[in-house]
Design a protein that fits this description.
Belongs to the fasciclin-like AGP family. Keywords: Signal. This is FAS1 domain-containing protein. The N and C termini lie far apart (92 Å). The chain is built from twelve helices and 16 strands. With 338 residues, it is α+β, with helices and mostly antiparallel strands.
Length: 338
């Protein structure tokens, strides 16, 4: 009986010792990491090549997918990685609590040239964007020292003006007093930021037209522009689009891709040309076989540029004036371009 009692007393220790000897818990890698291997393992093969140094300190990386990087063949991968890396930990849960428009300074910043990612949200606050690119795979990696989010969309280098406009929610300069510039000054900075992205994205003519109209556009409370890329502009020596640029501008209305696609057919958009407007001739949501059309011209790409003041969408050709009739709008005059 005594022997049996001793055995029962020792049984828990025997079980514990056996378990400890046979079970090996998974241990996440400790910093500093081989960042290149980690990114490659997570599926970010192209950007992993640029990760030539190890990470030290807490860091959050918004890693572009391989498909996204192919949208910017002229971009420097090492610089892109720094532009999409920020000091500190920003799990997706925290990002959802930050106000839309919050700016976070990146590791690409220098004392004389800070660079910031701007956080924006969809109307429902369920979709987040950093630098205009959607976070599609949040919290892929998070061990308390390093967080990696996957992002997908059209990639471009950050504008030198990306930190210029400080807001109450800015995370770039927490110790400095906040300066809120007058609306026209703020809008001018946002327009210059858009010009930078347009120049490197194949919309140099649009960039020049915005600069020519900078004083006028700076007075607006938001603007949407339907833009033709350089290849489309010069189909007819550029005269059509250049001469009718203001007909492509919707003043005091900032329509992001989600808002644009949700507009019903026959929606009217006032332009900067007095008394003239655009009309949604084919509503969005129809897929590639039935693309959205404005004045019978196909929308080719949404959100070419997005910031707090301006949204630019790509169209297949210069917009033409249409007249609505009982049978709908006049026939599409740009089928040759679409």
């Amino acid at each position: 009986m005594a022997i049996g009692f001793r055995f029962l007393f020792l049984l828990p220790f025997i079980i514990t010792a056996t378990t400890s000897a046979t079970v090996t818990p998974y241990l996440s890698p400790e910093p500093p990491y081989n960042l290149s291997s980690l990114l490659n393992t997570l599926g970010f093969h192209l950007i992993s090549v640029a990760a030539t140094t190890s990470t030290n300190g807490t860091t959050t990386i918004f890693s572009p997918t391989d498909v996204s990087l192919r949208s910017c063949p002229y971009c420097s991968l090492p610089l892109l990685l720094l532009e999409h890396s920020v000091a500190g930990l920003y799990p997706f849960r925290l990002l959802t609590t930050l106000a839309s428009g919050t700016r976070i300074q990146t590791l690409a910043s220098t004392p004389s040239a800070p660079l910031c990612l701007t956080l924006t949200k969809s109307n429902s606050n369920t979709t987040l964007f950093v630098g205009g690119v959607q976070i599609t795979r949040p919290d892929l990696f998070n061990d308390g020292n390093l967080i990696i989010h996957g992002i997908q969309g059209f990639i471009a280098h950050l504008s030198p003006f990306s930190c210029q406009i400080e807001r109450m929610t800015s995370l770039s300069f927490p110790s400095r007093p906040v300066y809120m510039p007058p609306p026209s000054t703020a809008m001018r900075g946002l327009l210059k930021e858009a010009v930078y992205h347009l120049r490197i994205g194949g919309y140099t003519v649009v960039a020049l037209l915005i600069q020519q109209n900078l004083d006028l556009l700076s007075q607006l409370n938001g603007v949407t522009i339907f833009a033709v890329n350089d290849a489309g502009v010069f189909v007819d020596d550029g005269h059509t689009f250049v001469s009718s640029f203001r007909f492509h501008v919707v003043p005091n209305r900032r329509l992001t891709a989600v808002q644009l696609i949700n507009l019903p057919a026959d929606s009217v958009l006032l332009t900067m040309v007095p008394g003239e407007s655009l009309v949604v001739t084919v509503a969005g949501g129809g897929g590639p076989l039935s693309p959205m059309r404005i004045n019978n011209v196909r929308i080719t790409i949404t959100d070419v540029v997005v910031n707090q003041g301006i949204v630019i969408h790509g169209v297949a050709a210069p917009l033409v004036r249409v007249h609505r009739t009982p049978n709908g709008c006049w026939p599409d005059l740009t089928e040759g371009f679409s």
